[in-house]
Amino acid sequence: MKTINLTECTVRDLNQALHDQTVECTEREWEVLEPKGQHNIACGLDQNISVDIKGPTGYFCAGMNKKAHITIHGNAGQGVAENMMSGSVRVKGNASQAAGATAHGGLLVIEGDAGARCGISMKGVDIVVKGSVGHMSCFMGQAGSLVVCGDAGDALGDSLYETHIYVKGEVKSLGADCIAKEMRDEHIEELSELLNRAGVDEDVTAFKRYGTARQLYNFKVDNTSAY
Amino acid sequence: MSDDIKVKPGLRESATFDRNTMTEIRRAAETGIYDIRGFGAKRKLPHFDDLLFLGASMSRYPLEGYREKCNTSVTLGTRYAKKPIVLDIPVTIAGMSFGALSANAKEALGRGASLMGTSTTTGDGGMTPEERGQSTKLVYQYLPSRYGMNPDDLRKADAIEVVLGQGAKPGGGGMLLGQKITDRVAKMRTLPMGVDQRSACRHPDWTGPDDLAIKIQELREITDWQVPIYIKVGATRTYYDVKLAVKAGADVIVVDGMQGGTAATQEVFIEHVGIPTLAAIPQAVRALQEMGMHRKVQLIVSGGIRNGADVAKCMALGADAVAIGTAALVALGCNHPKYEEEFQKIGSAAGFYDDYHEGKDPAGISTQDPELMKRLDPVAAGRHLANYLNVLTLEAQTLARACGKNDLRNLEPEDLVALTVESAAMANVPLAGTSWIPGKGF
Questions:
Q1: Domain boundaries, chain A
Q2: pTM of the predicted model, to two decimals?
Q3: Of these four, A59, A71, B373, B430, which has the most CB atoms within 10 Å of its CB?
Q4: Which of B74, B64, B57, B170 minimizes the C-alpha distance to B119?
Q5: pLDDT for residue B203
Q6: Fold for domain A54-226?
Q7: What's the ipTM?
């Protein structure tokens, strides 16, 4: 295992060393010490390596991740795993707003709570939150799944496209064009698989499913108040 | 309204409720929905035609028009990027999306730009192989929607343009109506086929300029600080926006005036939001000068650039380069009279067509219809664009030499005068024949 202490080098040094693994992989296991909430740690990775960050991170940690498996042993700042393409990111603590924003693939697990706009504009990523999510989560969600084991704030799934949403707790309100939907066998199977991948032990029958009503897919005059 | 309609003498048309206005009121009453169209502002605005160059005579020494060198190259991104982008001419192709435009049109833009040693720019919806393959210098737009956004394409780009807005619709998001969301477009954008696609007006993972500074750092980290990062803004509060963009860490700032085009937006937005390009340039230059960053952070200006005079005037006002969109499409064949009959069939006319969102463009440019797309030969259209870019450059050089400049970037406001009080005030140059700049005394 390669250990890098961010009090002894810069985030630039760390990221360059991690990016160099794309060209030639010399080390599969990485440990980052003393991140101290710095921004843009371990972003743009493109190699099947594991990175354990021992402490809190700032904005955009693990941004645009491909293939790598990144664990944050602490809280994560804004936009963790934004635009992730593949691989996985696990936040042991809480995550700030816009977690997993626009992410196209991979798995994001947040063991604590997530702030506002979790999964905003998500495009294929799977997100599992053991705690609750803030308002406007999954806004304009296009694809993938969002699982919330706690509660969801206001306007969940506003202007939703095709993301699947599962919430165990209370939903304060649903956004425009987001409705509760029947939990069929294929959804129970999908949810079980998601929870299993995330290593989260929950009763799948306690969840409700939410999705798009597809009423805003094409502009209609009578919908103007809904936009 | 066409002037060829005969009106009886004595009948008086209202200047307030003219026939265009009445037609729009009737259309709104019948449909209950606002008008959506493409193109840019069509109203008459103070523009570069309101400025003139002061050619050399006794007090200035001209350069020989055809023989003496007049440099046109410009290097963009010298502030932080390890690999600044070097353009042979100071005219670039503005961001236009695959989806709004056909794949052939995007390829033609790449071919034309590459022939002239300049850059072209992606748009909402991501980078296509045709575009990357034919563009020797390609700027990758990073937009609020992040449709088709992926780090591999980011790393393939020669520069990254973070789009905050565009001149046709500052404060508004994009729109691509269902008839243009074909299977390929839908897949690139991860959307169901046929939906009316709305692009967000705000970025999803950052809000203010302090956040943007961190976002730019992230983009630099992901690309290992190799390529320049532009920030594009629609022209509104340009002075403040440019200052904040510099503070956020931009290498290059793109200011798009309200004459800048769009693929589809509400007519009311296009005509009533933003400021003219002419008014925006001095604001941007003043902001850069006050920060000591003029020429260190390069300025690209777009919105209504049509000829070499416009290019030269932008540069005289302090721009480092210009970007063209609408004019580039016209060079490819947009609105060409040879399709007049077909324009008439879809309720338009050559030279007036702006319903790009409907996907029925007879010229095969703003469409995803396979049959219409075939009409545009990307090789021939690319050649036409290169010819046009060449003319813009030659014209700008001619004017610069006449002003005694051996580099287009040596043109300066002192070389200009204004024809109207409005343009003098906006451009901050004297009214022709006077030393009066409105607001500055004599």
A1: 54-226
A2: 0.95
A3: A59
A4: B74
A5: 95
A6: Pectate Lyase C-like (2.160.20)
A7: 0.96
